[in-house]
Amino acid sequence: MLPVDGSGTGNREGTDPCASGDGAAVLDELRGAIGRYVVLPSEEALTAVTLWVAATHIQSVLQHAPRLAVVGPTKGCGKSRLLDVLHETVHRPMMTVNTSPAVVFRVIGKNPPTLLVDEADTIFGPKAGDKEDLRGLLNAGHQRNRPAWRISGPEQKPTSFPTFAMAALAGIGDLPDTIMDRAVVLRMQKRKPGERITPFRSRHSVPELNTVRDRLAAWLTPLRGTAARSVPQMPVEDRAADTWEPLVTVADLAGSHWPDQARAACLAMTRSEVLQDEQTTLKTRLLRDIRRVFDTEGTEVLRTQDVLAALIQDAEGPWAEYGTNGLNAYHLGNLLRDFGISSANHRFDNGRQAKAYTRNRFLDAWARYCPEPAELAPGHQPRRTASATPTGSLPIGPPGGPARAARAR
């Protein structure tokens, strides 16, 4: 861990402490400013955003450029407002909503900008074919010395373009694993009625945030050499350590309560993403099991109660133990919601109406998340095997209950 002096400001390499300002106080001020304009999902998330913003001011000496994945289930969760705040506080902000990839390639250099990408889901979605270059840049730029080669100039010579730059990407739904695995992930939610924020007004808010940014830069710019030599003790390993190391480095430079606070946020948020991955695995298992039910019944429509009964009766599945008394209609609908699948009223041959699921609503999700295996040779019968269940205990109850309490918020 990088040693710091009693004031928590670390080695300022001969700079005047009064001119630079106290590091912990500057981070406290930045944290308060961000929290006034945006409701983040947890105190740990607010700490992480604060440190990520600060890390952009030393990114020229970093080995990894962590992404900030700002994702939410719907519009109106504060994603764009957070980007507004980031734009006024990070080092050399560059909004890339409508920016040509060629421009981005040429702007990144030894002193890279901080890329701010709104509507990132459109870059990685099925209709993003014309944004392949930008996708590749965002995937490669997490680690230094991963240039992109392009044919460039009047002589059409192979040219190396640097890709290393910190980036915040906001979008609806999860981004690809290549981004999420290299990101500090913020899972935004809509504000509750009692949650208040300060309205963002450019006339007043921008000067305030720019003042904090300038204090941040004045403190950190002289410490870039110290940051480059820092090898902080990390509470996580592998790729998570690569992503969080710049944030922990900043916290160690600040001292005071920030080193402990940063490591606590790192542990809480990485563990939260592990649980999220397990839940995603569970949802994929659900899609496979429902396809088996449709295949077994040989029908295009199944009542919700029949789907539930078939799932719960599967002795090899986790559904009888899901929640308090087994999987119910609420749980089922909630697990399928992210795939765009819902039940609807359906009138059956006997004239009775009931909530039901139709096969055609699952076709897209099946093709994307659990495609059919290659057909077996004639004469071979498929052997049913138990699918791997997620590690750890299954969530108890619907979202918002004990399962959510188990996750760091």
Automatic annotation (TrEMBL):
Residues 187-369 form the DUF3631 domain. It comes from the Bacteria. SUPFAM superfamilies: P-loop containing nucleoside triphosphate hydrolases. Residues 1-20, 374-409 are annotated as: Disordered. Pfam families: DUF3631. This is DUF3631 domain-containing protein. The lineage of its organism: Bacteria, Bacillati, Actinomycetota, Actinomycetes, Kitasatosporales.
